[in-house]
Specification:
Elements: E1 4-11, H1 17-25, E2 43-49, E3 55-60, H2 67-76, H3 80-93, H4 95-110, E4 113-119, H5 130-140, E5 144-149, H6 157-172, E6 178-182, H7 190-203, H8 209-243, E7 246-247, H9 253-268, H10 277-304, E8 323-326, H11 331-334, H12 338-343, H13 345-354, H14 362-385, E9 391-394, H15 396-414, H16 432-442, H17 444-455, H18 460-482, H19 486-491
Parallel strand pairs: 1-3, 1-4, 4-5, 5-6
Antiparallel strand pairs: 2-3, 7-9, 8-9
């Protein structure tokens, strides 16, 4: 049998109820403004439903406003004079105050659980209105979950626990069943939403828990689907980057010959190959494609998480060490070096060995040089390196940094509340980076295997299939570290 379960969000005016509702619904509703009584009437929104017909409905209500006066009206409303004040006088002389009274009565009569949103920056003992509002919650007589909003930068579990304990003490005198939890509508993560639903399930009357369990399972399945698709998006972006190559056109004329000569000497000695104008253009093309793919994948993450806006126009800063530049030795230019090479054969053999270009027997190399001359040596060198055409790709060191960067992007999007407005790139908490980097480091060999596969010419979709599970494991580990309760969320996959 299907059920309609209603939860109602209440708070003092201008604490952020509508902002939180937008975040939970992942769509824009109502009006968000820095003034009192922005919401003038209660509004119902379906958070989730099931195939069986169950509905979880969230009510957004007008703020309490003058809480002490509201409490007096509610306590006096059972007598005729109090009823006259409420239903006649307040209705026509103070509409926002009348709306607040009607909203509170509706909560008492219809809701199953009350969500009381408070400003975490204010201690309950310091806010004059809190004591009156706690008594109003007692008058309503329903289970209450206090949500600590506007917590600001991440403070650690210990600080949240202290605030939760202090608020719980203030509720204990007037409110029976209650829970307190940190839940910032601006920067909550979807795994915290599941924790909120778990708290609702705990305080809900037993006869409603079976239906609520079905609703929570539907909510969880939807979020896990978004998580899985997010990992696919990141895997495809990383695999395309690892597989990307840009050819380098050879320059002609004397200048080209001189550049080719310098490249040949550097290559033979095992040194970094100096970039020229053609190489710089290739690097710029590679960086432009990466920047575009990062923005496109971020836009996809934004859409998947029910946010609006687009990724910022942030062009990747290009550094030489980010690229792996492989240029062939110029056969024509090598003719200019014939005398030098022939006169330093012993040193050449040592340089090749020290540079990591081990050809086997040194005598064979001497024979090749003797038989082919300098130009033939360049051709042999290119064949042994597999570099008959110039190309630029991303360096191994740069590739090693990309999984952490991708996962940090994911965490930033997953924590961005719809109520904050359109997506804006911002600094993430300082403790995220060392956490993510340490997790990625533990999976280094698996990532390196994917980069090797890409370097050997595997199709991007094959590389993506290899990257996706390891990215998912890293993301799950990061979420479970930040929010220990989320580990069970992933364990309960269908």
């Amino acid at each position: 049998m299907s059920e309609r379960i209603e939860i109602t969000l209440v708070s003092h005016t201008n604490v952020g109820k509508t902002t939180l509702v937008r975040t939970l619904l992942r769509r824009d509703i109502g009006e968000v403004a820095d003034r009192a009584h922005v919401t003038e009437r209660s509004e119902a929104h379906v958070l989730i439903d099931t195939a069986a017909g169950d509905e979880l409905v969230l009510w957004d209500t007008p703020g309490f406003g003058d809480s002490a006066r509201l409490l007096r009206r509610l306590l006096a409303s059972e007598n005729p004079i109090g009823w006259l004040q409420t239903q006649v006088w307040d209705r026509f002389t103070d509409r926002p105050f009348f709306s607040s009274q009607q909203a509170v009565r509706s909560v008492r009569d219809h809701t199953h659980v009350v969500l009381y949103l408070v400003n975490a920056a204010e201690a309950p003992s310091a806010a004059a209105y809190v004591q009156a509002e706690v008594r109003i919650l007692g008058w309503i007589g329903k289970p209450v979950i206090v949500l600590l909003n506007q917590t600001g930068p991440a403070r650690g579990r210990e600080a949240d626990a202290l605030d939760e304990s202090e608020w719980s003490r203030h509720l204990a005198e007037h409110v029976g069943t209650h829970r307190v939890m940190a839940f910032d509508g601006f920067a909550r993560c979807w795994v915290q939403e599941d924790a909120l639903l778990a708290a609702v399930e705990q305080v809900l009357a037993p006869e409603h828990r079976a239906a609520f369990a079905r609703l929570r399972a539907a909510w969880r399945a939807r979020n896990l689907e978004v998580f899985d698709e997010s990992m696919r998006v990141l895997a495809r972006q990383l695999s395309a980057m690892a597989s990307d190559r840009e050819g380098v056109a050879e320059a002609g004329g004397p200048r080209g010959l001189a550049q080719g000569a310098r490249r040949l000497l550097a290559s033979i000695k095992g040194e970094a190959v100096p970039a020229d104008a053609a190489s710089e253009r290739a690097m710029a093309a590679l960086a432009t494609r990466l920047d575009r793919s990062v923005r496109e994948s971020t836009d996809r993450l934004i859409a998947l998480h029910g946010l609006s806006g687009r990724a910022g126009e942030r062009i990747l800063a290009r550094l030489a060490e980010q690229f792996d530049l492989a240029l062939p030795a110029d056969v024509n230019a090598s003719g200019m070096l014939g005398g030098v090479v022939s006169g330093a054969l012993g040193g050449l053999m040592a340089d090749l060995s020290a540079g990591g270009l081990t050809f086997g027997a040194g005598a064979l190399l001497g024979g090749v040089l003797g038989a082919l001359g300098a130009g033939g040596a360049a051709q042999a060198y290119n064949a042994l390196r597999g570099t008959n055409e110039g190309r630029v790709c991303w360096s191994p060191a740069f590739l090693a940094e990309r999984p952490a960067a991708a996962l940090l992007r994911y965490l930033a999007v997953a924590h961005y509340g719809r109520g904050r407005g359109e997506w804006v790139d911002a600094e993430y908490p300082a403790h995220w980076r060392p956490l993510v980097e340490s997790i990625v480091a533990r999976h280094r060999e698996r990532f390196e295997a994917a980069w090797t596969q890409a370097g050997e010419g595997a199709l991007p979709e094959v590389v993506a299939a290899r990257l996706e599970p390891v990215l998912a494991e890293c993301a799950q580990e990061a979420l479970a570290t930040l929010y220990p309760e989320s580990a069970a969320l992933f364990d309960r996959r269908p």
